[in-house]
Amino acid sequence: MSHSTAETVVGAGVLAVAVGFMIYASQLVGAGASGDTITLSAAFRSANGISVGTDVRLAGVKVGSVTDIELDPVTFRAVADLSVQSDLELPDDSAVLVASEGLLGGNFIEILPGGSAFNFEDGGEFIDTQGAVSLVELLMKFVGGTGQ
Q: What are phi and psi of 39, to 5 degrees?
């Protein structure tokens, strides 16, 4: 095997590994997932730890992501736009909350399905929302003895 043939074989191997890694990475982040999405909005009192790209989960399974978040100047609430799989039939009385993956983990949006016979359509808005809970506030209440 000549020197240039060996370089060609090694180069092809490296290229194949790179392509395999890209396919794996795209499936891992959901970029390879097919299907349409709908946009739903939710207004939170506190959206601490939430940003564009944050996961939206239902029963621990990623079903979407946050596509935009901004402050409503009238209500002073954080309004998040959520892109969710359109094949989900979410009842229109479902709730959303900012949940934490653990003490050191990040935050995500969790959907708690309701029981309504009517489902969200594109552009719908979650009415029942719960913002992020501050760990520092909880510790201060515990240490300070102000159990409320």
A: -105, 125
